[in-house]
Amino acid sequence: MAVYTDVAVEDLEVFIAGYDIGKLLSYKGIAEGVENSNFLLHTEAGHFILTLYEKRVAAADLPFFIGLMEHLAARGLNCPQPVKNRKGEALGKVAGRPAAIVTFLEGMWMRRTDARHCAAVGEALAQLHLAGADFPMTRANALSVEGWRPIYDACADRADGVQHGLTETVAQELDFLEAKWPRNLPQGVIHADLFPDNVFFLGDKLSGLIDFYFACTDTLAYDVAICLNAWCFEQDLSYNITKGRALLQSYRKVRALSEAELNAMPVLARGAATRFLLTRLVDWLNVPPGALVKPKSPQEYFRKLRFHQQVKSIGDYGVEARELTA
Amino acid sequence: MAVYTDVAVEDLEVFIAGYDIGKLLSYKGIAEGVENSNFLLHTEAGHFILTLYEKRVAAADLPFFIGLMEHLAARGLNCPQPVKNRKGEALGKVAGRPAAIVTFLEGMWMRRTDARHCAAVGEALAQLHLAGADFPMTRANALSVEGWRPIYDACADRADGVQHGLTETVAQELDFLEAKWPRNLPQGVIHADLFPDNVFFLGDKLSGLIDFYFACTDTLAYDVAICLNAWCFEQDLSYNITKGRALLQSYRKVRALSEAELNAMPVLARGAATRFLLTRLVDWLNVPPGALVKPKSPQEYFRKLRFHQQVKSIGDYGVEARELTA
Questions:
Q1: A21, A105, A158, B15: least buried by Cβ within 10 Å?
Q2: DSSP secondary structure letter of residue B82
Q3: Size of interface A-B (CB pairs under 8 A)
Q4: Hey, which residues 97-156 in chain A have their CB within 8 Å of chain B?
Q5: Of the residues B49, B78, B103, which one is the last residue of a structural domain?
């Protein structure tokens, strides 16, 4: 949650004048998204989100993200829809930064999730995977298995200071993951960051998905594994099998999971836990002590990884391969 | 700009249910206000601001702030209007914090101000002073002349590290201000923090004033002096006499400034510069190095203080006592 770049009214008015969305009535920097600066705009035409892309997002990737949101919205997925200016462009520049205006999605992200939310997320994730199937662009996942060891190498010497045993555990885990990572499962567009703060609800109903700035082309079942990590653990970091079952069962009602995908789930879940463990570790080690914005603890994902390492089969996540593929 | 306290959907829905503003459709933490956590709410009844009062705001002062906004709004001033719940209360509790819902004001604060904005602010400030005249509550200004030396004493030994000569300059200035501070000028409700980010415009027209959480009972002309500091200097910290003249002339068209008030302006402006210099100094010294949120520099107000120390009379601010009181 951050506003990194502020925007002057005069600059924003010039930018807005290129769009058919009326005059600007108000705008507020909002605490949403960790990679970019986001503003809620109110214009004569309604409410929109203005995103200024900060340095952590590569400019070369922006056409993929913008194109993907357009593609998914056109296929009926509730996600922010890029608004085009009068020249037909969805990507512009404000305050020296690449910028885009997208439609505003009503709804709220759930700070406390239950099994119904998990079911809704499973369904929406499968819909996303199906809707993305004919998206023509691709983007490699820099944070997949090949990307983990360089991150680890950069902070291995300091990892034990965060959590005793972390250095050794992750070293062994990387050896395991690099050897066992499933390479032949169905690929496609994945969200890759579908955490609770990126899923909006109105009442019990899922109203939309946001923040496609980690989206990429990768193993679809890996996206499911990320969601198991993000949605199905309790505050005390115990795995909630009811939530896991709800998520997986709802997913497969929309898109079938093959036996190979199901059997790979424990390894994929270990990989997902390792990925978030490593990026959180980097953030943790690189924020100065006493900073006002505390990064999220890597220990949470260390404990989730420990859980997945004990898992014997997909059954431990709440479903049987048989009932899912039946 | 900060969201210090996050709020769970479930807790907010329970809170909202006590009001006649329909169901919650969305809420976003916004980067507005430095003392409190602010959320933009969208409900079936429209848009509102939810403020959670953090520890820096004394709970005992909240009835003054809420009462003042109600009072001013009832007298036609464009400011946030507290919304009462079904029990008739404007002050409640969310996430363990005192909280209030106020109406949403359209408009934007100007990052770059010109003389027209300064004229509009002068007029609005005078309207605020008149509208506040019959407000029955009072609140002492903890950040007036008596409050400055304790702040200085707490950081005098480190002040020279921020700006060479600061310790000695402020020590002498406090001696001067304590001896010369005008005590018999008209008193009333002052905003005490009417900086550009607390004044909204739609086009050239001032659309509202916000953030009454420094408001108190004090010398009215001191509020004018704060605005001269906040609005009438350029980026290079040179005083813009055209802006100063616009602000003062517009003010007196609504509320006359007496000769005593005008003659006191140089001292009041020195006091205002000292007040912001000191609070910024404290913030500057107490934020850890490398923190993600940089406090504002105290040096800006050191240079403004230097300017005011050279001022000989109200004429140096852009107006003559004669033309103002004629």
A1: A158
A2: B
A3: 101
A4: 104-112
A5: B103
Q: Which residues does chain A have within 8 Å of residue B29's beta carbon, measured at their own beta carbons?
A: 1, 30-32
Regarding whether A132 and A77 lie in a shared domain, the answer is no
Query: CB neighbours (10 Å) of residue A28?
Result: 22
Q: Is residue A108 part of a domain?
A: no
Q: How far apart are CA B296 and CA B283, in angstroms?
A: 8
A300 with A226, same domain: the answer is: yes
Instruction: Please provide the DSSP assignment of A260-293 as one string.
Output: HHHHHHHHHHHHHHHHHHHHHHHHHHHSPTT-SS
Q: Please give the structure tokens belonging to residue A66.
A: 């913008």
Q: Does B237 touch chain A (CB under 8 A)?
A: no
Cα B3 to Cα A159, B59, B129, B147: the distances in Å are 30, 18, 31, 28
3-state helix, strand, coil in chain B (%, to 5): 45, 15, 35
Cα gap B283→B35, rounded to integer Å: 12
pLDDT in tens, A193-212: 999 999 999 988 999 999 99
Q: Which residues between 246 and 275 in chain B have a beta carbon less than 8 angstroms from any beta carbon of chain A?
A: none
Count the neighbouring beta carbons within 10 Å of the beta carbon of residue B184.
Answer: 8
B28/A9 touch (CB, cutoff 8 Å), yes or no: no
Q: Residue type at B247?
A: L
Is 70 exceeded by the pLDDT of residue A2?
no
Nearest CB neighbour to A288, from listed B6, B111, B290: B290
* Closest chain B residue by Cα to residue A200: B26
- B49 and B125 share a domain? no
Same domain? A85 vs A160: no
pTM: 0.87
- At A239-275, the pLDDT tens digits run 999 999 999 999 999 999 999 999 999 999 999 999 9
Cα(B4)–Cα(B180) distance, integer angstroms? 40
Residues of A in contact with B289 (CB under 8 A): 288
Give contacts of B201 with chain A, Cβ < 8 Å: 9
Cβ atoms of A40 and A49 within 8 Å: the answer is yes
ipTM (interface pTM) = 0.83
Do B314 and B202 have their domain in common? yes
pLDDT digits (tens, 9 = 90+) for B219-253: 999 999 999 999 999 999 999 999 999 999 999 99
- Restricting to B residues 173-202, those with a Cβ less than 8 Å away from any Cβ of A are 200-202
The predicted pLDDT at position A255 comes to: 98
State the CB neighbour count (10 A cutoff) for residue B259.
Answer: 12
With CA atoms as reference, report the closest residue to A282 among A172, A146, A159, A161.
Answer: A159
Q: Domain check: are B81 and B136 in the same one?
A: no
Domain boundary among A103, A126, A147: A103
Name B291's Cβ contacts closer than 8 Å, sequence gap at least 6. A288, A290, A291, A292
**B315 Cα distance to chain centroid:** 25
**Does the structure show a pLDDT above 90 at B211?**
yes
- Average pLDDT for A81-104: 94
